[in-house]
Specification:
This protein has 165 residues and is mostly helical. The protein is built from 6 helices and 2 strands. Helix content is 44%, strand content 5%. The radius of gyration is 24 Å and the shape is globular. It comes from Acrobeloides nanus.
Amino acid sequence: MLYTAPVKSKRSADVIEAFEKLFEKAQAKPWRLMTDRGVEFVAKPLMDYYDKKDIIKKVAYTNDEVKCAMVERANRTLLERLYKYFSEKNTLEWVGILEKIVSAINNTVHTTTGVRPIDVTYENANDIREDLINQRDSTTTRNAQFKEGYDDRHNMWITEDQLVA
C-alpha cells in the first residue's frame, strides 16, 4: 500500500505531524524506519519522536544517493499520475487531489504481483512473496550477450598502430 501525507515544510513539527497521519492511515506504526540523511529525518526532535514511539531509526550512510527501488517506483508512478492530472486540468494544485490519486494507485492491479495493493494483507503477503520467488526461479535465463571466442568482424576498427605483438 502507498500512504502519503503532504508536508508544509521540512520542519520537525510538520514532519512529525505527517508521520502521525501516515500511521493513522496505515492503522499501524513501523518498528523500524530507514531514511536518507535528510535533516527532516535526523533532527533532534525527530530522534526523540522515534524513541517515544519505539521506532528503531536507521540512516543509510552507504552512498550519497541511496535508492530503494520500490520507493523510487512508487514515486515515479505517483508523479506520472500527478503530471497527467496537471496537464488535463491545467493546474498545479496537488494537495486536494493527492488522496484520490493514491487511492487509484492502491486500487490498480500491480503488474508484478498480479494483485491490487489494497488486497495485500498480513495473511496473504507471504503467499504473494512466494509466488514472486517461484516466478523468478521458473523463468529461463537469457542467452549471454557475448559468446566466448574471437569475433573477426571487429578487426575493421583496429588500426596497425593499435596491434600489439
